Amino acid sequence: VQLVQSGAELRNPGASVKVSCKASGYTFISNYIDWVRQAPGQGLEWMGRIDPEDGKTDYAQKFQGRVTFTADTSTSTAYVELTSLRSDDTGVYYCAKNGGGTMTDWGQGTQVTVSS
Predict the structure, then answer these.
(1) What are the CB-based long-range contacts (under 8 Å, 24+) for 25-31?
(2) What would you measure as the largest C-alpha separation in the chain, in angstroms?
(3) Mean pLDDT throughout 14-39?
(4) Predicted local confidence at residue 100, as pLDDT
(5) Which of the ends of the chain has fewer CB neighbours closer than 10 A, N or C?
(6) CB count, 10 Å around CB of 24?
(7) What is the rounded average pLDDT of the residues 3-32?
């Protein structure tokens, strides 16, 4: 199993960013993809998940309204888009394959920096 994420991003406050997570080595539609964020010096923060089979999403309350998860089954790629970026959105964003409620495999992480 491999989850390969897109590269680091630098954005101004108020902008948007979209991070990708390309999955391989398993059947993409068989598992949820979870998204987790780690701000500098902080612990892991669960953002939510998507079911690639039907596109159903579940967002942590904190991120509702500013975050959108999508999945492209033709390329086995999941995406997270975050809008109206603020400086406290700076951090490393991870995707993870969810196996029965446990995040069993992780992407390498994508650094998102929000700074003017």
Answers:
(1) 25/1, 26/1, 26/97, 28/52, 28/71, 28/73, 28/76, 29/53, 29/73, 31/97, 31/98, 31/99
(2) 41
(3) 98
(4) 87
(5) C
(6) 11
(7) 98
Would residue 63 be called left, alpha or beta, if left means φ above 0 and alpha means ψ between -120 and 50 degrees?
alpha
| Euclidean distance between the first and the last CA atom of the chain, given in angstroms as a whole number | 37
Contact 8, 78 (CB under 8 A): no
Grouping H, G, I as helix, E, B as strand and the rest as coil, residue 28 is helix
Which helix (H) or strand (E) covers residue 94, if one does? strand 91-99
Q: Please state, as a whole number, how many other Cβ atoms lie within 10 Å of the Cβ of residue 43.
A: 8
Decide: 110 and 5 in contact? Cβ < 8 Å.
yes
Dihedral over alpha carbons 9, 15, 88, 96 (to 10 degrees): -50
Average pLDDT rounded to a whole number, residues 59-77: 96
Pairing of strands 110-114, 9-11: parallel
